[in-house]
Write a structure and sequence with these properties.
Elements (H helix, E strand, L loop, with lengths): L1 H26 L8 H12 L10 H10 L4 H18 L4 H4 L4 H6 L3 E5 L5 E6 L5 H7 L2 H26 L6 E6 L10 H17 L4 E7 L5 H8 L5 H4 L2 E5 L3 H7 L48 E5 L2 E8 L4 E9 L4 E8 L5 E10 L6 E7 L3 E8 L8 E10 L3 H6 L1 H11 L1
Parallel strand pairs: 2-3, 3-4, 4-5
Antiparallel strand pairs: 1-2, 6-13, 7-12, 8-11, 8-13, 9-10, 9-12
Helix pairs in contact: 2-3, 2-4, 3-4
Length: about 425
């Protein structure tokens, strides 16, 4: 009897324990953990819900958070600024109602020529063939902006098509930034400032658009160009940029099928007529004919001014070899003579560029010299041939030092190649 009773008691105890465990487990379910990224997304959507459109899904909203390292306040401000800018520029109507000026259609370099292996658009930028000075003289700033915005809207449409075709979300752009042909003329300050303005405009309104960038045919002056662009290169952007120099074909083919890559970049794609540069897809640019030039009275903005009766000499110290001395100037009404000299420590003067008369009253003059020797460089504005009539000169001059420390700083880019090729 005792054995039976003990057995029943033990069975009852076991059943009770099971019920207790079940009851305990049911009444203490753990709430799913919400990540800080999801919390930030919820908060951002709540704070800008009055501006959101049906097409603004979670993936789209997350791009704004990623661009601001999930700082909700900064992401909200970025989103609001962009929505206001889109309204101002009528971005939603560009695809249907905007046609770029002829000069931009013919000479604003670059274009989309296919897709990478993941299905994202492939864009080729021919920076070395871009005559930004000619374009600035030939088109209004608002048209440069709208044309770039139009291209981004076309890319967004391509994302939609690719997403439907492949059955998964497609986003981002692979960019091949070809620097073949880049020289010191590229260092024209207003041109670089305009280019950086356009880049920042796109970054501010199309966050996380660039998936990766391959810089090919990087020239010797690349460190100087990078120094000028450095303010726009975030730590996150650094991870996306790979500098490949001239030996780039094998790396590109790891990410892009040969059938999608133009022949001149190591692939098999050509135009229907066999042209290896695919000009029907990629605008080849080139020098803009002066016949396209508009009035350029605003070029003198932010330049220093001086009156030259007979001669004006401006001295600049270069204390690092292989630095670059660059200039731009415009005269009011008449031409002027211009040349460059170097004064050494013993005061001996050497001609670097002979004095020649330039029509800087018609087209602003710009240029540069590679200072392979240190010393004092003299920019000479010579009006001795017309001393009875003084000339007004607007000018800007600067020395771009060859800094070893800076060259070391961009070592991160070269190191990317090692990891990329593995």
């Amino acid at each position: 009897m005792l054995s039976k009773w003990s057995t029943k008691r033990n069975k009852s105890k076991q059943d009770g324990d099971k019920m207790s465990r079940k009851k305990y487990t049911f009444s203490h379910e753990v709430e799913p953990v919400v990540s800080k990224e999801d919390m930030a997304l919820r908060q951002l959507k709540a704070q800008v819900k009055n501006l959101m459109k049906p097409e603004h899904d979670d993936h789209y909203m997350q791009t704004w958070l990623k661009a601001r390292s999930y700082d909700v306040t900064k992401a909200e401000q970025m989103f609001r600024n962009s929505m206001a800018y889109r309204e101002k520029m009528k971005v939603d109507t560009l695809l249907d109602k905007y046609t770029p000026p002829e000069v931009l259609q013919k000479y604003l370099t670059g274009g989309d020529c296919g897709h990478d292996k993941e299905g994202s658009p492939l864009r080729v930028e021919l920076f070395g063939h871009l005559d930004i000075k000619g374009l600035m003289f030939s088109a209004k700033k608002v048209d440069l902006e709208k044309t770039k915005l139009l291209r981004c809207e076309q890319t967004a449409k391509d994302w939609d098509r690719q997403s439907k075709k492949l059955g998964r979300r497609i986003h981002g752009v692979t960019v091949i930034f070809d620097m073949e042909g880049v020289g010191t003329r590229t260092l024209w300050r207003p041109g670089i400032e305009m280019y950086l303005h356009l880049v920042k405009m796109l970054e501010d309104n199309y966050p996380e658009m660039m998936k990766r960038m391959f810089v090919v045919n990087a020239p010797a002056i690349f460190p100087i160009l990078y120094k000028l662009c450095r303010p726009l290169v975030s730590e996150d952007m650094k991870k996306k940029i790979h500098v490949l120099g001239t030996n780039f074909q094998n790396v590109l083919l790891q990410y892009i099928d040969a059938s999608e890559l133009p022949v001149f970049l190591g692939g098999k794609l050509t135009d229907p007529d066999g042209n290896p540069r695919c000009p029907s897809l990629i605008c080849q640019g080139g020098l803009v004919p002066e016949s396209y030039y508009l009035q350029n009275d605003t070029v003198a903005n932010n330049l220093k001014a001086a009156n030259v009766s007979k001669k004006l000499e401006l001295e600049y110290t270069v204390d690092r070899p292989d630095s670059i001395l660059r200039w731009e100037f415009k005269t009011e009404g008449y031409d002027i003579g211009f040349g460059v000299f170097r004064k050494d420590k013993d005061d001996a003067v050497t001609e670097v560029l002979p004095v020649e008369r330039v029509n800087s009253h018609m087209v602003p003059e710009d240029g540069s010299v590679n200072c392979d020797q240190t010393g004092t460089y003299i920019l000479c504005f010579d009006n001795s041939f017309s001393w009875a009539r003084s000339k007004k000169v607007f000018y800007h001059v600067e020395v771009l030092a060859n800094e070893t420390a800076h060259a070391e700083e961009i070592g991160w880019i070269e190191n990317q190649l090692t990891g990329l090729a593995l």
